[in-house]
Amino acid sequence: MSTPPSRWSEMAGKPVQDIDTPSLVIDLDAMKRNLGRMAEFAKKHNIRWRPHAKLHKSVALAKMQVKAGAVGVCVQKTAEAEIMVAGGVHNVYISNQVIAPAKLARVARLAQKLAVQGGGQLAIAVDSSEGVIRLAQAMTQARINAHAGSSVGTVIDVFVEVDVGQGRCGVEPGSAAVTLALEIRKHPALRFAGLQAYHGKAQHLRTAQERRVAIASAVAAVVLTRELLQAQGIEVGLVTGAGTGSLVLEAASGVYGELQAGAFMFMDADDARNERDPAQPQFEHALFVKTQVMSSHSDHAVCDAGHKSHAIDSGLPLVHALDPGSELEYFNGGDEHGILRPAAGCTRLPGLGQMLWLIPGHCDPTVNLHDVMIGVSGGLRQGTVERIIRVDARGAMS
Amino acid sequence: MSTPPSRWSEMAGKPVQDIDTPSLVIDLDAMKRNLGRMAEFAKKHNIRWRPHAKLHKSVALAKMQVKAGAVGVCVQKTAEAEIMVAGGVHNVYISNQVIAPAKLARVARLAQKLAVQGGGQLAIAVDSSEGVIRLAQAMTQARINAHAGSSVGTVIDVFVEVDVGQGRCGVEPGSAAVTLALEIRKHPALRFAGLQAYHGKAQHLRTAQERRVAIASAVAAVVLTRELLQAQGIEVGLVTGAGTGSLVLEAASGVYGELQAGAFMFMDADDARNERDPAQPQFEHALFVKTQVMSSHSDHAVCDAGHKSHAIDSGLPLVHALDPGSELEYFNGGDEHGILRPAAGCTRLPGLGQMLWLIPGHCDPTVNLHDVMIGVSGGLRQGTVERIIRVDARGAMS
């Protein structure tokens, strides 16, 4: 860890200029506006939202989301779920497959802990019969361990993941989902909760029209699958999915009952490259890497943030120009450096020691590189450090 | 942190099959062979080596390198230097510019600490007069703080960085380096130690011929600069540089006195894409992400390692096929997933729960994603966990 915790705690109240570089900084005002817009959007569309905590990995931000109206959070990893529950988040959905028996034992223990402690609820996704059977075995074993042989106990919510266009996990739409739902219903510790129908690829389609086509196809796949389930007398309690790039479409579908979008809190540079659907709330960039110029040249400057400070899987960061004439383009300078060249409108290259703000291409894996996020109120120019937000689940990949 | 430290300590002696996924695993036998090859190479060429600890960020591995003959380690960040020194590494070179006064104060304190504690030595690179002046101010202030006004004290070694083709930091070859050396010599707490001449781009040139041309050009730039310095009566104590991709050329140059190569310890998938120079030692892949199949389909499988488990800045990981017929290609599945499709020679897709080994495209930023590396001896098939190696400087970016 680069900075001892004691050093972080001393930062509260300090001016934004004093934040060391490179650091991950949240513009708290912008983030809270994003949160308010999402809450309002969900309310208006009368839809649940369970935002993805894989973005921020922070108990504090999860709780802030729940306070704003979210029903709980989604996570991708068992370890993330454990950390959220330990921090006091009571409704957690592992929107992903878990196959390893040792991990499923942890999932089952967590489901029990949630049920006992706070009247909370754990949910998980499946996409194979083997996955259902292993989950049921783990839940049964946890019941035995907890109740010394009693067969009553905690129930875990299970969503069948349907591949609605992502081409990654999930069963094909249609009868395969019915088979899995029937398998789930055989096991008393499992409750068939509905369908996981997330179209990840749609988030990165650039035009609103392309996204409409993709989500229309996802909706059709869900409707087909739901009809087959209903024909077997199986009700689909909830259809859950959607990311920030497409959420207006899932919300308007009449089929999805829950939005998982998470990125709206911070807004990636990559999200901002999409043509905005007019119905989408005006989310703002709220997460920045603060960096400074460490080497200055006639045709370029070099800053102290490379791809150990921000993830570049969805493209390089944008440079957030605070003043006219300071427009720069970021080029890859390796693990610890960024190369800055003049962009359109630029009248001068920044000098040695000048502070700059980068908008990460992809916030989720960027946050995962940092131990803390420094929350600033009052803006990036004149603001002060309000609080230090721990990335509780940084590196929680198991 | 995904796994509490107590859980790691219980892993020693366990079979490789029991390692949870995704995890970062070192094949210790292969790593030690790589280390032995590097030590032998350096000895044969009568050249110092100060491997870059930005790769492994581990005090234990730094000490292992010193034991094998390295003079110390290079780092890129002040925080990395602090962690190495705190761990007992006595010769540390920050092969990078440091500009922020608060960081330079830390650098100066560290130089003093090293000099006092272990007769150690700190070194740093500069590429601007402003950088030299700020460094000198910090060193002077640290002397005043330590000696209550005495002007005697610790000296820091300062290398002038010359841009020998990287196009990032460094002054132009020639007179600009002389200007900086003269500036350094004005300050009693600074000692001009030589030239930093690292050609990063050359590491990624695919053919041996392209690398020969690039390093020949770097050598010419160094020779020119050295002649100008000597004409001013300034001796160049040491020329330092070289990465794993080009080290045979710097070693044979007669100009470079020190190799900074670090990647040889683990060998990136990207390094292995280079045409090997016949003179280069046969370094092996020694770092792997252990992953398992979590979702199985007719035309692909999905594993539980995405780009939160390994860095993809230098390309996607290779799948290390332990058995004939199991050849797979890895496709980007996002933050937490990898998509696997059959590669040439593949006769079957892996089933649910099957363990796989990924060779990261770029090891440096991959290591930075993990809290520990699990050291295995006896190979990836039948081996056992020998030790857990902490990534002490994970996230140390300040």
Describe this structure as you would to a colleague:
- The structure is a homodimer of 398-residue chains.
- Chain A is of the alpha/beta class and 398 residues long.
- The first copy, chain A, folds into 2 domains: 5-24 and 283-390, Lyase, Ornithine Decarboxylase, Chain A, domain 1 (Beta Barrel); 29-265, Alanine racemase (TIM Barrel, Alpha-Beta Barrel), CATH 3.20.20.
- Chain A is built from 12 helices and 17 strands.
- In chain A, strands 1, 10, 11, 12, 13, 14, 15, 16 and 17 form a 9-stranded mixed β-sheet that branches.
- In chain A, α4 runs parallel beside α5 (101-118) and α5 (101-118) packs across α6.
- Chains A and B meet through β10 of A and β10 of B.
Fraction in beta strands of chain A: 15-25%
Q: Could you state the CATH homologous superfamily of the largest domain in chain A?
A: Alanine racemase
Tally of helical runs of chain A: 12
Mean of all residue-level pLDDT scores of chain A = 95
The end-to-end distance of chain A, rounded to whole angstroms, is 20 Å
Report the top-level CATH class of the largest domain in chain A: Alpha Beta
Strand tally of chain A is 17
User: In terms of structural class, how would the helical and strand content of chain A be classed?
Assistant: alpha/beta
Largest interface by residue count? A-B, 63 and 63 residues
Counting copies of identical and different chains, the oligomeric state is homodimer
Detail the poorly predicted runs of chain A.
none
